Amino acid sequence: MGGMTAATPSRRVLLAAPRGYCAGVDRAVIAVEKALEQYGSPIYVRHEIVHNKYVVQTLEKKGAIFVDETAEVPEGSIVMFSAHGVAPVVHEEAAQRRLATIDATCPLVTKVHKEAVRFANEDYDILLIGHDGHEEVIGTSGEAPEHITLVDGPEDVANVSVRDESKVVWLSQTTLSVDETMETVDALKTKFPQLISPPSDDICYATQNRQIAVKQMGAEADLVIVVGSKNSSNSVRLVEVALGAGARDAHLVDFADEIDEAWLEGVSTVGLTSGASVPEVLVEGVLEWLSQCGFEDVEIVKAAEESITFSLPKELRRDLRAEAAELSGKPGEQSGRVSGA
Q: Is 136 assigned a catalytic role?
């Protein structure tokens, strides 16, 4: 540790790169903003567009209305589906209520949905590794409920049974810890030696890259601060990964004012990162807070370059207000045309 004096050890921040917004979140947030610009408010959004308190509050101020269920959206309105994806039954509900839909499901989640449909059509038992009750898991399970069994971590493997051990495949929620998922897969392979893996890894590139960066700095950090919301699966995983990598302490905060100064006692190196649904302005707020506490020296810990972008949902290229009016005014007509499927 260079620059140490007898009185104060040097204080530094290790700032993870990449961090924050992934391509799927960026696409979803921009989709809500564009829809509000194009069609005016309100735009209804089924569930939080992404799991971040600040993003949701900001979009609410602009005119987005977040609802838990499709039934809460008035007939003839525009509804957007969140980045986490929805089950086919939700598209059907929207058509029945004559809603114009914008599907902001992350393309990497859509990939998992398509895998589920394909393996179900081939009559496989699908073991979906993920967290019970998470929106993404509910959406994927809804693609083939009679074929999918949820496996919530390695300790759940003992409870799993299948119809035919030669026709079993695993899929996973995209925002899990890579290490814990592979631990679950290993346990499943021990139980079902003929278990097939998905054609490509389901855990998204951004989740993996953020975890790799945290692993790199975790061993050096006395304290790791992860900026993210408590209902953000990938943010919660980053705290776990930091502790697993050797960080003495790790905490999840939405905003800088949630940091407890007591966490800094005896700390000379703070690791800082943010979940995939976190805007950079919140990280800047934490950096500013830390610099006021004497942590002014910032070093970047770079794990990967990210250049992936996704095009906006195709529905934003149409006049959805006219379609919504047409749907509600002429019951049953063309309801398939705007389902966003």
A: yes
